[in-house]
Recover the amino acids of this structure.
């Protein structure tokens, strides 16, 4: 037998390396379009959101000179005259630029009730001569509204004037920074409660989809191809109808004079219509319905891959069918169950439209508050902070899941 | 119901199965199996053999008829109470358990004490020569090793009956022969009864005490391997088991055991199969290894002139392809020794054989 050398000579090694490089480049080219899309449609917005949650330059841009003058302020008394004069002249400028409204909104967030104060002061200073302000600015300001004498007002202005601030995150967990810099509970507790409620509802929805979806997927996996495909159409049907239509269908079912109530009253189970719509109950039931396919599909895909001989083997060895299911089939279907549960849970934590339509005040979830801050209160920074916190929460839960179940135990098919 | 003989262990009595309430997949299966026998159900796919196995295991209901073990009907017994071991084609080893845990499963289900479970698992791992592999997962084993684990798992709870559903179907040829040997060894050593389903006739011939040849839901013949090969009951069995040539002809005369058949190439004498009538068309079957090409010193009763077509070198033997005058293909297997002759293309040759080696079956 002849023995050939095992090592590559330099030319061979170069060729092999070139081959590998070429293949890598090819693989990279396949994903370039997606990569570009993801950067523009996902990475950039998320980064902007994270940045926005700590960055708010509005006030700093509106009254930079006043804020600079406030630097030397002790914080215990009314600021000295130069600050007041500077602010009065800034106010006059803003009143004429029509930007005083922005300042009013921003300060109002830090100190409720300030919106009207800022607006009325702006109105009264609009027509005053510059020389008059330079001379009597301080007293004019205090005349316009006596709240300008209150140090709290200036604390509010100063904190609103910070370009980078953690205050939105503090607000999202129902905390606030006091004038002396300490962190304390806010008077109104909204967000923590809402996060907990959101997680609880998502958990209930996940459990419900498992209870409804697992037996169905199990049956479909055992059924003949024809029957399984037929049933699959019904599972997928919700995907083919508009989300809005499905949600409104629930409104029709659950409202005071809806199908459920009138049926129950007709057969005499109840005398008064039940409050079904605009409750937590209606949100949960509608979302369970909408998210069910996300549970059934991965479960079915995984179960379809489990040959029935496993169960048969276990039963032939003397295991009762239920025992065989628990010891053999359940562990083998766990990857599908994990994938489905994670999918449903994460989608429902961030769900918006169904709670908005059928939830009323009772069934609101965190996304509805985020939407409220973006659309109605125009507090994008707080919305961004709430959203970022939600993202962190989900990543945390995923990490926990990975520790408990193992991320490689997820399988979509 | 027939009287159950003392040595009959498992009895199928006119067992029928229909899935769709219209057609029968198994059309009246009868069989008596003695304790310790190795029975193979052999047949093409869709012939009903696996259905019979599944009815025996309890995973399919019996449409009519009766299956009895040791004289007691098991038709209504739940599959987990039948105490039947089973080996599947895909092995069905539980992937999330180690080999030892797989073997322990049937014992744990039976709530055996821990120490006893451990000892028994060690004993059976040793039996299939896998003592070192108890802590591995099935995914880390080779096909043959998995097969041995599956066998051990089916035997470990000492069932009286072990069913095997094409257990060697997923293995390559060498491994398959090795495992055939292994299964035969374990069967001899442990003395359990085996019902084995396969579509591979070599497997069936080399392992079984008896083979039941299935076709179209009916058992065509149930006999020991040699009898099946040498004396097939009908043309299907003759064709399905081993290789066979079929020469068309017409029956001139027949007596109790033999028949004289007129073919295009001349008159030949053959054994008469059941149902053969004088004057009707027939097919004479003759195995390729029973045909001889002169010069030879073998005895012969029949001779036919054929035309040489081609020959294929296989290694241990050579396959000759001839054509009869009516165009029928005839294959001859000749040992690869000095007697293997050469022919020119289209050359004429003589084929010789004994009347006792060929059987005339009714045509159609």
């Amino acid at each position: 037998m002849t023995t050939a050398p095992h090592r590559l000579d330099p030319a061979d090694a170069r060729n092999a390396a070139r081959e590998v490089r070429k293949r890598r480049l090819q693989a990279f080219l396949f994903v370039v379009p997606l990569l570009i899309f993801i950067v523009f449609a996902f990475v950039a917005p998320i980064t902007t959101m994270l940045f926005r949650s700590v960055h708010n330059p509005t006030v700093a841009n509106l009254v930079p000179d006043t804020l600079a003058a406030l630097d030397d302020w002790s914080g215990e008394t009314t600021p000295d005259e130069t600050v007041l004069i500077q602010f009065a002249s800034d106010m006059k400028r803003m009143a004429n630029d029509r930007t005083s409204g922005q300042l009013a909104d921003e300060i109002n967030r830090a100190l409720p009730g300030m919106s009207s104060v800022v607006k009325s002061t702006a109105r009264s200073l609009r027509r005053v001569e510059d020389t008059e302000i330079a001379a009597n600015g301080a007293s004019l300001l205090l005349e316009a509204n006596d709240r300008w004498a209150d140090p709290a007002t200036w604390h509010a202005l100063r904190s609103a004037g910070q370009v980078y601030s953690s205050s939105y995150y503090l607000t999202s967990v129902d905390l606030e920074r006091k004038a002396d810099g300490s962190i304390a509970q806010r008077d109104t507790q909204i967000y923590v409660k809402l996060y907990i409620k959101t997680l609880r509802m998502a958990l209930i929805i996940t459990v419900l989809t498992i209870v409804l979806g697992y037996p169905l997927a199990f049956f479909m996996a055992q059924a003949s191809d024809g029957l399984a495909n037929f049933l699959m159409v019904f599972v997928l049907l919700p995907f083919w109808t508009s989300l809005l239509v499905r949600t409104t269908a629930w409104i029709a079912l659950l409202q005071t004079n809806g199908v459920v109530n009138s049926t129950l009253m007709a057969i005499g189970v109840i005398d008064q219509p039940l409050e079904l719509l605009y409750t937590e109950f209606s949100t949960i039931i509608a979302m369970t319905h909408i998210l069910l396919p996300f549970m059934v599909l991965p479960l079915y895909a995984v179960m379809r891959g489990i040959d029935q001989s496993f169960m048969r083997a276990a039963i032939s060895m003397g295991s009762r069918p239920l025992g065989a299911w628990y010891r053999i089939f359940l562990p083998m279907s766990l990857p599908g169950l994990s994938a489905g549960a994670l999918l449903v849970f994460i989608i429902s934590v961030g769900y918006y439209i169904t709670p908005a339509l059928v939830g009323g005040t009772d069934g609101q979830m965190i996304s509805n508050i985020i939407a409220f801050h973006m659309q109605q209160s125009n507090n994008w920074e707080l919305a961004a902070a709430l959203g970022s916190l939600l993202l962190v929460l989900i990543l945390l839960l995923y990490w926990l899941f990975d520790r408990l179940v193992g991320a490689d135990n997820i399988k979509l098919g | 119901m027939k009287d159950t003989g003392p040595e009959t262990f498992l009895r199928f009595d006119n067992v029928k199965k229909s899935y769709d309430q219209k057609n029968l997949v198994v059309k009246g299966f009868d069989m008596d199996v003695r304790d310790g026998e190795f029975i193979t159900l052999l047949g093409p796919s869709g012939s009903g053999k696996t259905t019979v196995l599944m009815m025996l295991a309890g995973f399919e209901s019996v449409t009519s008829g009766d299956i009895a073990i040791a004289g007691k009907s098991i038709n209504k017994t739940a599959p987990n109470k039948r105490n039947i071991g089973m080996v599947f084609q895909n092995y069905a080893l539980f992937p999330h358990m180690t080999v030892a845990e797989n073997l322990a499963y049937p014992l744990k289900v039976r709530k055996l004490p821990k120490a006893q479970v451990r000892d028994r698992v060690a004993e059976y791992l040793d039996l299939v020569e896998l003592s070192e592999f108890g802590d591995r997962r099935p995914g880390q084993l080779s096909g043959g090793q998995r097969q041995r684990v599956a066998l051990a798992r089916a035997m470990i709870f000492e069932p009286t009956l072990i069913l095997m559903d094409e257990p060697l179907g997923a293995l390559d040829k060498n491994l398959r022969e090795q495992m055939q040997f292994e299964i035969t060894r374990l069967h001899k050593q442990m003395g359990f009864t085996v019902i084995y389903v396969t579509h591979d006739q070599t497997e069936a011939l080399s392992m079984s005490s008896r083979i039941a040849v299935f076709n179209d839901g009916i058992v065509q013949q149930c006999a020991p391997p040699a009898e099946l090969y040498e004396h097939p009951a009908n043309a299907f069995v003759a064709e399905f088991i081993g290789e066979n040539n079929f020469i068309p002809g017409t029956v001139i005369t027949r007596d109790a055991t033999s028949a004289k058949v007129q073919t295009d190439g001349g008159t030949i004498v053959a054994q008469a199969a059941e149902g053969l009538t004088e004057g009707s068309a027939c097919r004479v079957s003759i195995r390729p290894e029973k045909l001889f090409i002169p010069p030879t010193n073998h005895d012969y009763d029949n001779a036919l002139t054929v035309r040489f077509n081609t020959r294929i070198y296989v290694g241990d033997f050579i396959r000759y392809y001839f054509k009869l005058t009516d165009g029928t293909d005839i294959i001859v297997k000749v040992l690869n020794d000095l007697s293997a002759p050469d022919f020119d293309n289209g050359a004429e040759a003589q084929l010789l054989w004994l009347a006792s080696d060929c059987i005339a079956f009714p045509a159609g």
About this structure: Residues 261 and 267 of chain A are 10 Å apart (CA to CA). Residues 10-52 of chain A form the longest helix (43 residues). The mean pLDDT of chain A is 88.
